[in-house]
Amino acid sequence: MIAKIGRGKSLFGALSYNMDKVKNNTATVLAGQKIIESPDGTFTTAQISNSFQVYLAANRKTEKPAVHISLNPDPDDRVNNNDYKAIAKDYMEKMGYGKQPFIVFKHNDIERSHIHIVTVCVDEEGRKISDAFEKRRSMAACRELERKYNLKSAVEKKRNQSQPIFKPVNYKAGDIKSQMAAVIRYLPKYYQYTTLGTYNALLLLFNITAEEVKGKYNGTARQGLVYFALNVKGEKASNPFKASLFGKGAGYNEIQSHFEKSKAQLQNSPSRSALKVTIEKAILATKNENEFKAGLRELGINTVVRRTADNRIYGITFIDRQSRSVWNGSQLAKNLSAGTFNEWWNNGNKPEVHLQNPNDLKSSGTSQVMKQSSLPETKDTNPGISDAANTMADIFGGLLPQTQGEDYEEEAFARQMKKKSKGLRR
């Protein structure tokens, strides 16, 4: 179980964030301690807020009295409501909030359920509850509660990074925004790509695409990005999502900056020539598109092919997981452009490849891998988008950090609380 503790000036903001989810039927009020409720057992934001006023009035010096805690069990844990109530009470006791008023919300707006607790860090006599060594105490409390309630250990899971976590967006599963955010937020941290085309080739593996939008606002030209979820055929399956919903790193200016940094880093990268030679060897060692893709995949290279409606290949991108770089074929060499592969796979004109040292093909492990991974002649599968998506686990397993089905709205709200706190110190 993972605990996240946020502090802010506005208690009303923390309560409104959770109560808005209750109104939208993506959260419920699970329990409350010393909280005013209506005769019918329901709660309003005003009533809950009034429950804390005596405590807040007793101490007006504490800069950030509102405390917003989320407790996040592993997605595989199945925690019932009674256990959630007990976990919340036990956690608050261990953190020194056992006698405080607090309210517990259960969120169901992402794949995993989790709880949020809102309280204040001043007691009824106006004394501030100590936050010394808070993170250390919180981690100890979580380990103790994992044992007591038979939950999966977050520490053990962190040690075991072998299982792939990221997967293509499934628009039918709901909460598309959180699914997309878990991917979009991390790609710039782990991969180098230099154009919107190569960025989209990477996003395509997760059933996501980005589009540039242009317009004017108050007479000033503006540019931005919007993101869509795709189905397995590569067709748009959602309304557009503004880049701002996924954080600063997903926006137009930040992506352009990433392109420029990647260009500088890749310009003299030895991975470029190594990848070029590997692809050329794959051409020599294989007979068709399926064999070519399978052989490169065995070597940690994924191939994304873009086709027109009449099956003409107009783009080909190679994703090298060893160097964590993304290349259009034409960036590597003229003979690796989309037109070359269109002639081969659509017209049967296999390109001639002249390696600088032909003996490399015999001596390297590439040809051996190609022979081992060659696919039998079968009915051709979709060689474009769905094929790329289906190889997701092979490509990104263990590469990107593990997540537990992040709630991006929750992350944004936590950042908002921090920003407000920083502003107070200026």
What does this 3D model show about the protein?
- With 426 residues, the protein is an alpha+beta fold.
- It is built from 19 helices and 11 strands.
- The strands form 3 sheets. It has a 5-stranded antiparallel sheet, sandwiched between helices. The chain has a 3-stranded antiparallel sheet with strand order 6-7-8. It has a 3-stranded antiparallel sheet with strand order 9-10-11, sandwiched between helices.
- Strand 4 (102-107) and strand 5 form a beta hairpin.
- Helix 4 packs antiparallel against helix 5 (134-148) and helix 12 crosses helix 16.
- The model is unreliable at 360-405 (pLDDT under 50).
Mean pLDDT: 81
- Give the topology string: H per helix, E per strand: EHEHHEHEEHHHHHEEEHHHEEEHHHHHHH
Total helical elements: 19
Structural class, from helix and strand content?
alpha+beta
The shape, in one word, is elongated
Tell me what portion of residues adopts beta-strand conformation: 15-25%
Radius of gyration: 26 Å
Q: How would you write the strand order of the largest sheet?
A: 1-3-5-4-2
* Poorly predicted residue ranges: 360-405
Question: Strand count, sense and closure of the main sheet?
Answer: 5 strands, antiparallel
Specify the helix fraction band.
40-55%
Tell me how many strands there are: 11
- How far apart are the termini? 35 Å
Question: Keywords, please?
Answer:
alpha+beta, 19 helices, 11 strands, 5-stranded antiparallel sheet, 426 residues, single chain
